[in-house]
Design brief:
Largest interface: A-B, 51 and 51 residues
Shape of chain A: globular
Oligomer: homodimer
GO molecular function, one term (chains A, B): DNA binding
Protein name (chains A, B): Glycerol operon regulatory protein
Function (chains A, B): May be an activator protein for the gylABX operon.
Organism (chains A, B): Streptomyces mangrovisoli
Number of domains of chain A: 2
Strand content of chain A: 15-25%
Number of helices of chain A: 9
Keywords (chains A, B): Activator, DNA-binding, Glycerol metabolism, Transcription, Transcription regulation
CATH topology of the largest domain in chain A: Beta-Lactamase
Strand order of the largest sheet of chain A: 6-5-4-9-8-7
Radius of gyration of chain A: 21 Å
Number of strands of chain A: 9
């Protein structure tokens, strides 16, 4: 552990917290961060004093409000979500199905917002959840609009199968991505779970780059898929405009 | 600056970002954090490598997705918001007015969620915005349910007036807080702006402690105030149940 720099050690304390471990004792933190108890104690004290961590009455630490306030400035996190939320709410009102907003981080999708449909398929998504790009509708959109190097690199790695319907053949993936670009929509049917289908469309930033994807997830048996496509595209287009995108001469994909 | 510890210097880089400064150059960061350019460069590199900061094509830094993912674990930030959002949406559907969720940090209210009513009063709230406790409905709720020491300390400081209707008299504030506890609701009329009124109610955690407040903000001329009270209380109670609160023998305040 001595080869890590001071910033790395401090950040390792924050990295000790995840969805499975949202509350940790000092001993937990020291073990998970690979720090001695005395180093962990010193760093946790500094983070708590600043407000990045908070300590409850039982001596358990969790992530603090001040870190959340700083993180709310992340353009791909809460800031994007703030622009998107009214459009996601409208999409939810129009469909009453699971509505999701995701961005790409490396070769994964990260969900930054979702509204759960009350009577819809049980989709186990939470804010901050990650998923590989090739299986989900949002992932296919983000991969299709990623640069050439990303797509080449992605096709060269083994494509994990989640169901027998997941795309695992690189040739089929390339054809699918071309179709996503051509139609402006990705449909992922039974590729994540046997009972669900998602329809996704790209969200563009002010410069026209695809910065996020919106999707609706419905039961696979649902016959309304064609009717969902315009609604999802409309929501994606609304968010894009909210981000400063102007259609101009560019064809909306 | 040499008297600051290594953790303090790293956190000062994060603290350089705020709502007025969501994107900063390395020079900006060095100046705002009070660091030499070389120290700022080293710390920013470590934060960027970890994902706490991201650098765009123009060399400008902003808060990164990974910090947002960690911050999403904050029980008083995104985690509380996740439990609350369906109830806030229902409250919005029922009222079509501005709906807000806030927590207390020291002597201030911090808004952690809001849904903007489309045809309602222009309320300039954003996630992470702060406001003193004595003027807003949510602030009065959080102050009324804060401990005795907080209330004593708060009354001893000067109470800033935002309009001629803001409570600035300590005696009137004490009476108002007693009324908030008795009725389970706070009504702040024209105390923040001349044209707005808010109705707020407390959200309780599993142990019965008040952890947040919900409010609806409407035009002051709106005659529906009495009708809003049960809706706001119902939403607050729903979120409290979602957090594990059980009414039991305790009177809901």
């Amino acid at each position: 552990m001595s080869d890590r720099s001071a910033p790395e050690r401090l950040l390792s304390v924050l990295a000790a917290f995840d969805h499975a471990h949202p509350a940790l004792s000092l001993t937990d933190i020291s073990r998970r961060a690979g720090l001695t108890l005395s180093t962990a104690h010193r760093l946790v004290a500094a983070l708590t004093s600043w407000g990045a961590l908070e300590r409850d009455a039982d001596g358990v630490y969790h992530v603090g409000l001040r870190l959340w306030e700083v993180a709310a400035l992340a353009p791909r996190g809460l800031a994007l979500r703030q622009v998107a939320l009214p459009y996601l709410e409208d999409l939810y009102e129009a469909t009453h199905e699971n509505v999701q907003l995701a961005v790409r981080d490396g070769t994964e999708v990260v969900y930054i917002e979702w509204i759960a449909g009350r009577s819809s398929v049980g989709v186990h998504i939470r804010v901050g959840a990650r998923w590989p790009l090739h299986a989900t509708g949002v992932g296919l959109v983000l991969l299709a609009h990623g640069d050439h190097a990303l797509q080449e690199a992605y096709r060269e790695r083994p494509l994990e199968a989640f169901t027998p319907h997941t795309i695992t053949d690189p040739v089929r993936l390339r054809r699918t991505l071309a179709e996503v670009r051509r139609t402006g929509t990705a449909v992922s049917s039974r590729q994540v779970t046997e009972d669900a289908l998602s329809v996704a469309a790209p969200v563009r930033g002010a410069d026209g780059t695809v910065v996020a994807a919106v999707s609706v997830v419905v039961p696979e048996a649902d016959a309304r898929t064609p009717a969902l496509i315009p609604a999802v595209r409309l929501a994606a287009r609304g968010i894009s405009r909210g981000l400063g995108w102007q259609p101009g001469a560019r064809v909306l994909q």
